Amino acid sequence: MSTEQAVLEGHIAIQAALDSGSREVRTIYIDRTRRDKRGHLARLAQSAADLGVRVARVPPDVIASHTTGQTHGGVIALVGPRRFVPLADLLPPAGPPFIVMIDGVEDPFNFGQAIRAIYAAGADGLVVRPRNWMSAAGVVARASAGASERIPTAIAETALEAAAFFRERGLIIATTARRRATPLYQADLTGPLFLLVGGEKRGITRSFLEQADVVLAIPYGRAFAQSLGTTAAAAILAFEVMRQRRA
User: Fold this and answer.
1) In a domain, 215, yes or no
2) CA-wise closest residue to 137 among 52, 49, 32, 16
């Protein structure tokens, strides 16, 4: 058992971890002075009890000792490291796969927001590069509204490694750029798809762009020289994939 420990805050993120089994939930602390008008904390405590997870009702200062601010809503969980799956396990049993890799995002809030968007749009799985997000697990889970705990996630050493794996399994490799690209709404995104979304600072490497099957550009409504942030780009791309597949 790993001795690494992170803190998840709020009933949404903790419930997601319990539901998905994304990580070991070791102890849940609930503020014993907190009123539970909507019953969220009671339902969370019942879910934890069903799974044999310890729940302790504690004074507010116990929770404050593990957190900063008041975003926890009166409940936190001490948890272990995120559990990852093999790349092959991201492929769905039926239907064209839609796998997303988010690479080069340094800000945990932006990372969580991007995951929230792709999960809401129906992505089957997420690929990330090796990195210890333990110290920021709470921020990522909260920013993603628990989506970072729910979406199946695998690790690849590089984007090229992930792309090679999925290309061998019939997926089209797509990414974004501003030049020599197909406008997003003119591309066919209904087939098996691996999409790389890069961070604002580093962007997509030339080697990946040269090997991508499809390079996409998000059309703008006016002349504007700046790139969109990762969160906005991820949302636009993922929901266009969803729109085309539902159409």
Assistant:
1) yes
2) 16
Within 8 A by CB and 6+ apart from 62, the residues are 29
Domain housing 41:
6-82
* pLDDT for the residue numbered 204: 82
Task: Tell whether 180 and 110 lie within a shared domain.
Answer: yes
CATH number at residue 19: 3.30.1330.30
Residue 1 lies in a domain: no
Distance, in Å, from the CA atom of 155 to the CA atom of 162, rounded to the nearest integer, reads: 8
Report d(CA 126, CA 148) in Å as an integer: 9
pLDDT digits (tens, 9 = 90+) for 106-161: 899 999 999 999 999 999 999 999 987 777 999 999 999 999 999 999 999 999 99
Report residue 166 as tokens: 């999925």
Strands 75-82 and 6-9: antiparallel
pLDDT 10s digits, 56-69: 999 999 999 998 77
For residues 116 and 109, give the distance between their C-alpha atoms in angstroms, rounded to a whole number.
11
Identify whether residues 41 and 150 lie together within a single domain: no
Q: In the β-sheet with 6-9, what is the strand arrangement from edge to edge?
A: 6-9, 75-82, 23-31, 54-58
